[in-house]
Amino acid sequence: MSISNVVASYNELSKFDLRVLRVIEVLHRNHEYVPVKRIVNYMGLSEEVINKSISKMNKLKLLVRRGPDSVRLTFPAYDILSIHTMVKRGVISAIAPTPLGIGKESDVYAADSPSGEKYALKFHRIGRVSFRNTRKYRVWIGERRHVTWLYEAKISAHMEYLALTEAYKAKVPVPRPRAVTRHLVAMEYINGVELFRIKLSNPEDVLEQIILAIEDLLKINIIHGDLNEYNILVNPSNERITIIDWPQWMYANVKGSRVILMRDLNIILRYFKSNYRLNISIDAVMSRLTPLMPSIELPPEKAYSKLIKRVTSLVK
Question: Could you list the active site residues?
Fold first, then answer.
């Protein structure tokens, strides 16, 4: 469903319909498909009244029924709940109908704030292609029995927001984070194009900006984890970079992080060698980065122990 259709559906909902959606979201913690009787008991209203709202939202493709007695949210319903929260918080007032980008695991749209500031809205879509193949966040999921795509998408969004917050504080060139709710992150709109789409006038300087950004990230114990020519934006007017797309970041002291760092570097150095004949060896770059790497690598559960508690408390 396009964002225009999502907004159109949102405008058709009453406050009561939104309340029903929110209750279903809460009950998803224990049910993949929420029994209608649980909704009735939770809200203390008649089944007839609840079913009327459910039927309306089923027609709008905001709910999926399993038989007559249970329902689950769809991504458009989750979009509506997230947009509603952002509007209530005064973060956004309008969303552009044309996406800035559509991917397997996220959709990005431009939005305006009530004050006229422009933001990028990133809707995380973990689980859209295949829920079973997107268990990126096992360490945060633990032994939960009723893990749904809602929970994974929410973790993905909050993880990205945390990384953006830490990186922005450290003056790494990333979009300024504005707000997060559920699977939606609002961040600064960047005037830039992907690295692979632009012909650089000073590729040496751009590559050095990237390496300096990696150094600054290591100083705060962070590795991007998916650094490539698609996740680096370049401002055409001054060739300053901004690094985007952060859900897959990792701590630099996690076991195996050095391999991920070298993979990021290989991709970037190969790109500049292939397109600009800059033959910079990975050994030369690693000689700069190695002193910034933690001396001890920890198992994920131990390295992320405090972060696990923080993230899971945020997404309950």
Answer: 226
